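Form 7-S
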Amino acid sequence: MTLNSKIKLLAVLLLLITKTTIAQKEEEQPFIISEDVVIKKYHNQDELENMQKGQLMILYNRRIEVLIKILPNIAFTTKPSITMSSMGIPYNKENRNALKDNIDAATTYFKNTLEFQEIVLPYSDKDNLISAILFYEETLKALHTYDDFK
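Output:
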């Protein structure tokens, strides 16, 4: 290997090492409202009346989850997949920790609610479940018009 080749190889290695050490991996920001917090289908009373109680309980719990994860954040956004930075909120350590705590609290609250629902919801009257699902769905639909109040 010639001296010229060694210098070129050393220069390339130094460049790679420098680039690797200097490069900062940009942290991916979590969403204020997770992108999976959506209702894909709204139902009418006839559809719900034709469902089994087990199916209604699944729908009921899903609507509770979506409400728990959206309602506390409507002052920021009602839409999933929005980050702090996209809202103009600095993504600094304090705000990052506050968002993480908020997400963790909502997740824990939903988990605890779900555990309770699994025990007592089977005792619920089917008509009451249907009414609750319809009410929750109307509430969620109203979030689509939230911007009209600004």
